[in-house]
Amino acid sequence: MSRSLGDIVGALGGELVGNASLQIHRLAPLATARADELSFVAQARYAAQIQTTAAGALIIPAGLRDAAMSRGACIVCDDPYLYFARLTQWWKAQHEPAEAPRVDPSASIHPSALIGDRVSIGPFAVVGPGARIGDGARIGPHSIVGRDAAVGEETLLHARVNIGDRCVVGQRCILHPGVVIGADGFGFAPHQGEWVKIEQLGAVRIGNDVEIGANTCIDRGALDDTVIGNGVKLDNLIQIGHNVRIGDHTAMAGCVGVAGTATIGAHCSVGGGAIVLGHLMLADRVNISAATVVTRSIHQPGLYTGMFPIDDNAAWEKNAASLKQLGRLRERVRALEQRVENNLPKS
Amino acid sequence: MSRSLGDIVGALGGELVGNASLQIHRLAPLATARADELSFVAQARYAAQIQTTAAGALIIPAGLRDAAMSRGACIVCDDPYLYFARLTQWWKAQHEPAEAPRVDPSASIHPSALIGDRVSIGPFAVVGPGARIGDGARIGPHSIVGRDAAVGEETLLHARVNIGDRCVVGQRCILHPGVVIGADGFGFAPHQGEWVKIEQLGAVRIGNDVEIGANTCIDRGALDDTVIGNGVKLDNLIQIGHNVRIGDHTAMAGCVGVAGTATIGAHCSVGGGAIVLGHLMLADRVNISAATVVTRSIHQPGLYTGMFPIDDNAAWEKNAASLKQLGRLRERVRALEQRVENNLPKS
Amino acid sequence: MSRSLGDIVGALGGELVGNASLQIHRLAPLATARADELSFVAQARYAAQIQTTAAGALIIPAGLRDAAMSRGACIVCDDPYLYFARLTQWWKAQHEPAEAPRVDPSASIHPSALIGDRVSIGPFAVVGPGARIGDGARIGPHSIVGRDAAVGEETLLHARVNIGDRCVVGQRCILHPGVVIGADGFGFAPHQGEWVKIEQLGAVRIGNDVEIGANTCIDRGALDDTVIGNGVKLDNLIQIGHNVRIGDHTAMAGCVGVAGTATIGAHCSVGGGAIVLGHLMLADRVNISAATVVTRSIHQPGLYTGMFPIDDNAAWEKNAASLKQLGRLRERVRALEQRVENNLPKS
């Protein structure tokens, strides 16, 4: 199936330059787009590709209008990347029309659960006693909504998502397969060489418009709740410890670990594989590079990094060996400075 | 609901100072506790908060008795953190009375499985041929106990836990959602640029009182078994490779990876995101800091660390660039030392 | 049960030296093997263990024939490790004869799905509309094959594997429990401090003979597909971002993260916990050490490393503190060099 450029601009706005009846069969990356496909140029630095792409039409910023018009159809708009994002949403809706709400007869739904209007519940899903499912929510196959837990309106739990007892998920959230919300936080008191479990009496509260990637885990709080703000985006395989608080619109890439009782501000970003240690505070608008270990609180916005630079192995071995002598090297330099200072004139 | 201080001390001991009929509605952190809530002061270094907390009552060590008594009710005990741990257990039991054992009719239970007394099995669980479920065990919804696998007495498998064929889990264990016990270890023989699978013929044996966090994986052994000792505590999203052995009461934080055939002692700790390479041996009581890569066996107890310190990005870039010249820098210092030695008197 | 040495050599070849009727009860590691067990010596460097092992028989390379014959039965072959791999396959097949194909009546199979011959489908599995399951494929309990997705011939999905809508898995693949194929890639356009979702319109295409470890995730592409080549082996808890391409026969150890649009060549290896940043290109036959962060494209085959060396904590603290002064240290050395150069004769 396809949609015309005219349909697209009709739905999403922007200024159409060129043939409104041109049929678009797919949205495509600039490098591989074909004549019946639509691509976008988000930034001026990709301008050189305008002349080489085979895309049938381009979404471009006003500044590239002249360059783009000379080669064919385009949609001119303020922010092509944002336009493209909205276009993907529209495109998906065109191609995958919403299914009629349906509760699969195999689902196990406790009679005391409150199920809203237009709710879909997939095969083998389990909805526990006292659980509340908001209007228009979709509960995927094998997903579990625990006792007294709540799923907000229009929220989508993909397959095999766990919402633990008493945990709350807001509206319009998307949780991908394998997500575990509300497993016990990792809390034990040491006693004579063994560990005594601290029962985790809190829950997890997740705001609206949150997206959580596959197999990501958010633990319930020990006493208070673990809290995820509105608009937070978490990628796959992330671990969020108990009592963590994440501010609104913060985003984290895959494989991040946030230890217990860390408080992360709003509008932060955390790169893939980074670790935030427990009980730390990160201010708003702090950006952490990939694979960085945050070992202290950060009170100022900015970009913070700590990662060993990659090198060919032989060079790394040499530098890593030297690194283990670094304190000693500083002392040697200090001694040299002293000796030179005592014996040589200032230059 | 609530419990009186008198009830608590009656159940858990300690010396009650103050009003035994004071009703406690919640256990709460010191910083946010209210007048009808109970908190604890584990260590003398939090003593300053005794005067500022609004908690209605406090669990304190004897050394803080005078400071605490002046402000209100308290429970004096030897180890407030341990007392608190046991209190969370008692509190949870009060609030969530044990449900009557129940086998959901939707569960798929092979006729040759041996199911103990007082066993609960949740919706859509699968218990395979020859599996054994011990007395009082609970098998959560969507959990799978494989062929000839065993789950010990009073063990709790939360939702969606996999116990692979022939794997054995001890007594009183807790496995959180998404745990995978007994997937194949990662073993292949190289042959003409391709990988030939080594079937993993071992299993996994897990001791008693082990807790395993959400989405954590423990692979089956290649020939021998992978073995997890008694009282081991593993957080979420941990990977334990084939043939690993972990000693009793060792604890690992989230996102740790332990490669195949590593042997880790008893009473060790491994911080979040750390990696232990394969075929290494860690002695008892070795503590590994977060995000540290263990590249050699460690024979002495102690704390070991290796992580690039975080910095603002500009400073990091400068230092990281210098790091790649570190071997060269040492040579330059050596040359300087030589030249100074040859030309200057000792200072 | 047991098999004789003669049976083994009859099935797998090699030259048998010794008693063909010797019964083997288990394949075992060299260090723990007993008199009725068979072990292997892959490399000459383990030759010393030939005299100490209690194994009843050994698989050895021709070069160790004399050393091995003197102690008992052996199988001489070109590549003992490869022989051993094939032996584990044969051994497993002997001990766990293939079960007759069976579709569990509890499985939810859409009438429009195409199910091949000799297909097994486990309890509570879900096969969506338009899905295709190839001949001889096995779909484990709780596994889900999404709308219009495809699973190739003889492929094994263990329990609780998700194949997202439109995703394609090749022939003879093995996917372990908890694998998520085709969750949405992590794509958002920033807009006024919030994130606008970019719908992920691509899918995932997985080649033949691929093995994917427990709880590993491979995201669907944004526009094009995410592509995994033939013979790729991925361990547990790996994250593969959208639009990643992985070349044939590349292997990755556990806990690796590959960010979006990275292109990794054929015959590469990536060590456990390593991170590959987005949009990078790795040539064929690039090997990345464990816990290394790949921050730039790598065009030459070879081994690349970047990890902070582990040390006892006190030494690490000293060196890490010095590391943060490293740029300054270089400047001090430069100043010393200058001053020495200006004042001292060449030595």
Automatic annotation (TrEMBL), chains A, B, C:
Q: Name one GO biological process term.
A: lipid A biosynthetic process
| GO molecular function terms attached to this record | N-acyltransferase activity; UDP-3-O-[(3R)-3-hydroxyacyl]-glucosamine N-acyltransferase activity
Q: Which keywords belong to this entry?
A: Acyltransferase, Lipid A biosynthesis, Lipid biosynthesis, Lipid metabolism, Repeat, Transferase
Q: Does the keyword Transferase apply?
A: yes
EC number(s) in its UniProt entry?
Answer: 2.3.1.191
**Pathway note:** Bacterial outer membrane biogenesis; LPS lipid A biosynthesis
Q: Which reaction does it catalyse?
A: a UDP-3-O-[(3R)-3-hydroxyacyl]-alpha-D-glucosamine + a (3R)-hydroxyacyl-[ACP] = a UDP-2-N,3-O-bis[(3R)-3-hydroxyacyl]-alpha-D-glucosamine + holo-[ACP] + H(+)
Q: Has the keyword Lipid metabolism been applied to this entry?
A: yes
Q: Where is the active site?
A: 242
> Which stretches make up the UDP-3-O-[3-hydroxymyristoyl] glucosamine N-acyltransferase non-repeat region domain?
22-90
* Segments forming a coiled coil: none
Superkingdom in the source lineage: Bacteria
Q: Could you give one GO CC term from the UniProt record?
A: membrane
Question: Which Gene3D superfamilies does this one have?
Answer: Hexapeptide repeat proteins (2.160.10.10), MurE/MurF, N-terminal domain (3.40.1390.10)
| Record note on quaternary structure | Homotrimer.
Q: Which HAMAP family match?
A: LpxD
> Which family would the database say this protein is a member of?
Belongs to the transferase hexapeptide repeat family. LpxD subfamily.
Q: Which NCBIfam families match?
A: lipid_A_lpxD, PRK00892.1
Q: State what this protein does.
A: Catalyzes the N-acylation of UDP-3-O-acylglucosamine using 3-hydroxyacyl-ACP as the acyl donor. Is involved in the biosynthesis of lipid A, a phosphorylated glycolipid that anchors the lipopolysaccharide to the outer membrane of the cell.
Q: What is this protein identified as?
A: UDP-3-O-acylglucosamine N-acyltransferase
Source organism of this protein record: Hydrogenophaga pseudoflava (Pseudomonas carboxydoflava)
